[in-house]
Specification:
With about 120 residues, this protein is mainly beta. It has no helices and 9 strands.
Length: about 120
């Protein structure tokens, strides 16, 4: 197997948050998928988004590691605890997380998503 380089080329896949989950704005999001394995159980790439906010609800078997390249985001859990992340900072959104994802400044981040039962 060869090493896979994760890069953002072109526009990437574009989308916007589900209107029923929107809290603020209607931000355009870009995803550059760089690697997938295990029938979608592992995905890695780069994600970018304009300022805005929406509610998120992770599945019971979905975890996401992210590392901010540029910009700032704030994640607030369903109990009101908030954490803000900027360039060079990283975190894991655990399976089952419910709360709000808010892009404070246009953001670009690396992501790794793991779905499925972890043994």
């Amino acid at each position: 197997m060869a090493i896979v380089r994760i890069v953002a080329q072109g526009v990437g896949q574009e989308d916007r948050p589900d209107p029923q989950r929107l809290v603020a704005g209607n931000p355009l999001r870009h995803t550059w998928s760089g690697y997938e394995a295990g029938n979608g159980q592992l995905a890695a790439g780069i994600w970018a988004c304009e300022p805005g906010a929406w509610r998120i609800a992770f599945a019971a078997d979905k975890h996401e590691f992210f590392a901010i390249i540029s910009g700032r985001v704030r994640l607030t859990d369903e109990h009101g605890h908030a954490d803000t992340f900027g360039p060079g900072e990283a975190a894991v959104i655990p399976a089952g997380f419910r709360g709000e994802f808010r892009v404070l400044e246009a953001v670009r981040k690396y992501y790794v998503i793991v779905s499925g039962v972890l043994v």
